Amino acid sequence: MAPSVQSSPQVTNPRSPKMMSRCPRSPRIVSAFLSPVPLPASNAPQNMLPLDNAFNGGPQQPPQSTSPHPLKQTQHSSIAKSVMSTPGMARTNSAGKEGIQLLSPPNQLSAGQALTDTPATTAPNSPRIRATTLDIPGLTKSRVSPDGRIACRDIGAKLVIVMVGLPARGKSYITQKVARYLNWLQHDTKIFNVGHRRRIAAGAHDNLANDEPPHPSVKHAGPATPATLLHGTSPKSLSSLVNSNSRPGGHRRTDSVTSIDIDGGVDQSATFFDPANKAAAELREKVAMETLDELLDYILNRGGSVGILDATNSTLERRKAVVDRVREVAGKELGVLFLESECHDQQLLEANMRLKLSGPDYKGQDPVKALEDFKKRVEIYEKNYVPLGEYEEKAGMQFIKMIDVGRKIVTHQTKGFLAAQTVYFLLNFNLAHRQIWITRHGESLDNVAGKIGGNASLSENGEKYAKTLAQFMDVERKKFREKQLHKHECSHMPPRPGDTTPPNPEYSNCCTQDEEGRPLEKNFCVWTSMLARSIETAQFFDDEEYDVKEMRMLNELNAGVAEGLTYDEIKHQYPKEYDLRRDDKLHYRYPGAGGESYLDVINRLRAVIVEVERMTDHVLLIGHRVVARVLLAYFLGLEREDVAKLDVPLGTIYVLEPKPYGVEFRAYKYNSETEWFDFQPDFKLKNEEQKDIKVNVKVAKST
């Protein structure tokens, strides 16, 4: 018998008046949260049941509210109630009591419990959810978003990415790469790292800023003290609670590899992550939920478009709690995308573990003892680990499974422009150790005349630069090969004294190694624009040794009516345009046929960036001033306001070597007297006023 039509219970807007005032929603959206949403039987998905437990086939009356402040009310689904009352997951109430209801597995859920995170189809007579499509700064605009950014009220266009996976699976590195890419595309993105806050809450010294740096988008909210994270909980009392089972007569184990020299800190060895350690489990859960609350505040109140929750989230209970909290605070519109990283390749996993041993939890400790403790921690997580899969599929949740850092990608029901951009980026993702060189073309005849744009050929000095560039690349390519082989010979598990920095975790197979297991030599690509001065700069490269290719995407910004003019001529002929450009170079678009802005260049370079991320070979990009600025802005995570002001003079070549927690960055300057490139020690990027520019990616020391 077909089920009868049922109305969902009334859902009040969960956000406080303060939140509503800072991020106003249209009356249409508010009403969607304040009124019942009937679900016709003909449109009811098979895997979706009403949120109320009392599903009796008849319509339900919305619960009557007695509160004088209905906007502050919240209503959990039955799953949310069961999650929040699960032992170890429950939120302590004002009386200090916890619920005891256990969480049912997917195949044992009682009738009426929601199995889906997908918003219900709205009936014809219900308030519709706003349509959300792509928003691209510089390329799209609307009445609510004249600059192309996602409007504050378009909650459905925003995204929460929730990381999932065991320790040492590369989650933090993936989040940093994704955040850097989305920020570069002008979508405001921040990472909220639970591990960082957990270390602060437990009273441990966090060396993250020096050794395992987060992307600048990592959010560290509030004063970095345990008391502020635990709402007044005394660090000393917390320490005694967490370590109550450690050793009689002491508040922490003195032989812990992470509690050494931590004054008043909590032992964060493997026992800290044992579910049997109730006090530690409560601390970890509290920190995780508070970090999520900060993420949601960033999305809803502070203009953020994407928030990334960087944590293990390895249990089904934790992931349900995350979804329930998002729905409680933001409603059904805000997208939630789970991103899981798995490592099946043993060599890749060992490389990840070597990197973890140099992180904040094990800094300065004996590598053998640290590795033993870390493996115990992983074993504890593995006992309770539930990978993404059947439950999420039945629930209609968005998720991505990333296996061996891009060897295999599984996606499920990804919806929305930002989620699609994330998938697109991850499909072209690898950790290969390689070099990325960026330079402007050699000096052109128009450079000598002070003209912008055009399609002039190289000057005599430009010809000399081009010849030296090809010779210099030959030398540097050989140096990299020697260093590559040396690092391979000096990589052991566990690390030994004298070992070099760990190699990049990279999936290895017969296509990347020789018969003796050594890495194969990298190919070398040279990419130019389709303008004469760029093509001529690459003329001395041997086509048998280098893959030389012209790309229109690397062309200089088109100046429209100002092409071929000097800046003085532009100032006199187009004074209004000159002032507009000076006031906002990033968003200014030159008038006339083909005129472009920096945002246009960013969008046409997106394909180049994704290809560089996909490939495992070396690459030299011979571009132009604006192109070099935009490329460096991506790889070094420059602030938005600094992109158009970056000083990239002729005769300078930059090299970047991606690292698991940052990038190795060097610069060389062409010396016309010696006709060679001089290394620039302690090089810092400058703006046009020769002031230092902030680099938001950890720059590793040259090795």
Automatic annotation (TrEMBL):
Domain 6-phosphofructo-2-kinase: 156-208, 263-431
Coiled coil: none
Gene Ontology, cellular component aspect: cytosol
Name of the protein in question: 6-phosphofructo-2-kinase-domain-containing protein
Alphabetized UniProt keyword annotations: ATP-binding, Kinase, Nucleotide-binding, Transferase
GO biological process, one term: fructose 2,6-bisphosphate metabolic process
Any Pfam family: His_Phos_1
The keyword Kinase is annotated on this UniProt entry: yes
Domain of life: Eukaryota
PANTHER family: 6-PHOSPHOFRUCTO-2-KINASE 1, 6-PHOSPHOFRUCTO-2-KINASE/FRUCTOSE-2,6-BISPHOSPHATASE
Region entry Disordered, spans: 1-93, 206-260
Polar residues biased stretches: 1-15, 66-93, 234-247
GO terms, molecular function: 6-phosphofructo-2-kinase activity; ATP binding
